[in-house]
Structures are given as structure tokens and as C-alpha cells.
């Protein structure tokens, strides 16, 4: 069985591709390279450069490579930027997903693992986010991911009415960090880890936005998960769909406890050997004190667990950053 990984030349997608290869599964990649890198795709993996908005290209790829399932990670992923670019966000994330679903149906591809986002929850008013926490997205990005989930669920119902099926699940997660191998690294200009480590590499001082929150050390607490753990669960979900194992429509891939920005800074100093005291700036408007998700449901069905410590996350990210800088 061949799996198509959309966005497979990106940071997370490339790790999912490697995880499939390590499991002995054939895989093909579609990526527009808007934010992906061709060097992230192993030489032995077929790579199709293009956008999901090109339905003919998607259909041709599905048929030519005899694809039986899709892991859908392609999309515009910058929540903050999506506020100023909503039309681009909806085009890439909603229209792109609808086109993919249309071409999957035409090619009789009946399995889908969707990379969703914890941005669908917005700013939840609970100590621990579960799959039952109400979804209240606060950005076009979060809205587009939630609409993607709706599209998939609606298409699955339509397939059932037509006497077919679309077996699917959606994985929601917050901050993905670290690296499974130094040649794959986070190149986002917006994520905390590459920002902090890049500043340390350049001899600059990272900044904490607010240290007066109602948390143990006064700084914001967030969920951070290692990209290798995340990739592994995507493959487990794909295997479950292949086997016909019933899955929930949505799973949170959460840490259950989270870490603070201050903790990240402290461990970054230890790992990099750069002795620094972060600058403290005022709070950013809208930053909640704590957002952490439970991963209990995913642990039950997908073998989800945090296999890497915060030190592992930062050390692997730093190694990759140094390898890239060199």
C-alpha cells in the first residue's frame, strides 16, 4: 500500500515520510515548495512538485502511484500571518482540502489522516484541553483547520450514502519541535525554538514576553511535542486505518503538562553552552497563561506518548540548527 504525504517536503511532513520509510511503507510526496525543501525528501521517494489546487495533478499522482491512503499535511500554517492573509489561508487550507477529497473519491482512495491543529480550540478556559473542549478558533488558520475537519466528516458521510467509505481521523497538536535527524530542521520564521536558537547562534539575547502570569515561574506554559513522536503517531494512525481499526474522528497529541517559556530558556542555555539571561518584555495582547492538551485518547488508540524530554527536544533542534548553519 502506498501512502501520499501532502506537504512531505516540509519540516513535519518530511519527518512523517521518514517514519513511513522506517516502517517499510512505500510513500509518495506532493509539495509546492512554498515552505518546503526538496532536500528534505529522500532520493528514493517519488516527489511531485505542485499544489493541491491542481486537481488534475493530484488525480494523476494518486493513480500513477497506486495510492491507497493520504496523510494530509499541506497548507498555509502561520496562524498570526493568516489574520492579514485570510483569503490565501482559506484557498490553501480549505479549497486545497476540498480538491484533495474530490480527487481521492475519483481515484477510489479511501483512507485519510488529516494534520489538524490545536488552533481549532482558540483560547480555551480549561486547565487541560480534551477532545470534548469546545472549538472556538481565533484566527483564519484555526478556522480553516476546523473547516477541513468538517469537510472530511461530510465527505465520509457522503461516501457511506453512496455505498463506499472514507476512513479518516484528524490529529490536533500545538507546538512541534526538535528533530529526528540533523538534516531535517524547522525553518519557520515564527516558531519559538528556531527563533531562540537562531538568536543564540548569532550572539543575540532571546526575549520573554511577560513574566507576571499566574504560572509557577510567571511565564506562559504551552504544549511542546517532539516531531519524531508526532510523526510516529501519524504512521500508527495510517496503519490503523489500513487494518480497518475504528478510530475517533479527532485526537489531541498533547503533553498533558506543558513547559514554560522560562524553562525553555534555562534548558537552552544548558544545551547550547551559551550563558544568557533573557530580556523580559511586556506581555503580548491575547497571550493566555496556559494552554496544554491531554493526550490520553491518543495514548489509548495510537500509542501516543512523550518519548523525548525537553532537553531532548532542544538538543536535537540545536544539533540540526548547527548542522544547517555549517
TrEMBL record:
InterPro entries membership: Epimerase_deHydtase, NAD(P)-bd_dom_sf, UDP_G4E
PANTHER family found in the cross-reference section: UDP-ARABINOSE 4-EPIMERASE 1 (PTHR43725:SF53), UDP-GLUCOSE 4-EPIMERASE (PTHR43725)
Required cofactor names: NAD(+)
Pathway: Carbohydrate metabolism; galactose metabolism
UniProt keyword list: Carbohydrate metabolism, Isomerase, NAD
Pfam families linked: Epimerase (PF01370)
Domain NAD-dependent epimerase/dehydratase residue range list: 3-254
EC number: 5.1.3.2
Entry keyword NAD: yes
Reaction catalysis annotation: UDP-alpha-D-glucose = UDP-alpha-D-galactose
Organism name: Microlunatus spumicola
Source species taxonomy: Bacteria, Bacillati, Actinomycetota, Actinomycetes, Propionibacteriales
Domain of life: Bacteria
Family: Belongs to the NAD(P)-dependent epimerase/dehydratase family.
Name of the protein: UDP-glucose 4-epimerase
Top-level EC class as recorded in UniProt: isomerase
Keyword NAD included in the entry's annotation: yes
Amino acid at each position: 500500500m502506498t501512502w501520499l504525504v501532502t506537504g512531505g517536503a516540509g519540516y513535519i511532513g518530511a519527518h512523517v515520510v521518514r517514519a513511513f520509510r522506517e516502517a517499510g511503507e512505500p510513500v509518495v510526496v506532493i509539495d509546492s515548495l512554498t515552505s518546503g525543501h526538496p532536500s528534505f525528501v529522500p532520493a528514493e521517494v517519488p516527489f511531485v512538485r505542485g499544489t493541491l489546487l491542481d486537481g488534475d495533478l493530484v488525480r494523476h499522482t494518486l493513480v500513477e502511484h497506486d495510492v491507497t491512503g493520504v496523510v494530509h499535511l499541506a497548507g498555509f500554517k502561520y496562524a498570526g500571518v493568516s489574520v492579514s492573509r485570510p483569503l490565501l489561508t482559506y484557498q490553501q487550507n480549505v479549497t486545497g482540502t476540498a480538491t484533495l477529497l474530490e480527487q481521492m473519491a475519483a481515484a477510489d482512495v479511501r483512507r485519510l489522516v488529516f494534520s489538524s491543529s490545536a488552533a481549532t480550540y482558540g483560547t480555551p478556559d480549561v486547565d487541560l484541553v480534551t477532545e470534548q473542549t469546545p472549538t472556538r478558533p481565533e484566527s483564519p488558520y484555526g478556522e480553516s483547520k476546523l473547516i477541513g475537519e468538517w469537510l472530511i466528516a461530510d465527505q465520509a458521510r457522503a461516501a457511506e450514502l453512496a455505498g463506499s467509505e472514507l476512513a479518516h481521523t484528524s490529529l490536533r497538536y500545538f507546538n512541534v519541535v526538535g528533530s529526528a535527524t540533523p538534516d531535517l530542521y524547522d525553518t519557520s520564521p515564527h516558531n519559538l525554538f528556531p527563533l531562540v536558537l537562531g538568536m543564540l547562534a548569532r550572539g543575540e539575547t532571546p526575549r520573554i514576553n511577560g513574566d507576571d502570569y499566574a504560572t509557577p515561574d510567571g511565564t506562559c506554559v504551552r504544549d511542546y511535542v517532539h516531531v519524531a513522536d508526532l510523526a510516529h503517531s501519524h504512521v500508527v494512525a495510517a496503519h490503523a486505518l489500513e487494518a480497518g481499526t475504528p478510530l475517533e474522528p479527532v485526537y489531541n497529541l498533547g503533553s498533558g503538562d506543558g513547559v514554560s517559556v522560562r524553562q525553555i530558556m534555562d534548558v537552552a542555555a544548558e544545551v547550547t553552552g551559551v550563558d544568557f539571561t533573557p530580556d523580559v518584555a511586556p506581555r503580548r495582547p491575547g497571550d493566555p497563561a496556559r494552554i496544554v492538551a491531554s493526550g490520553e485518547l491518543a495514548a489509548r488508540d495510537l500509542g501516543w506518548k512523550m518519548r523525548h524530554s525537553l532537553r531532548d527536544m532542544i538538543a536535537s533542534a540545536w544539533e540540526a540548527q548547527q548542522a544547517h548553519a555549517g
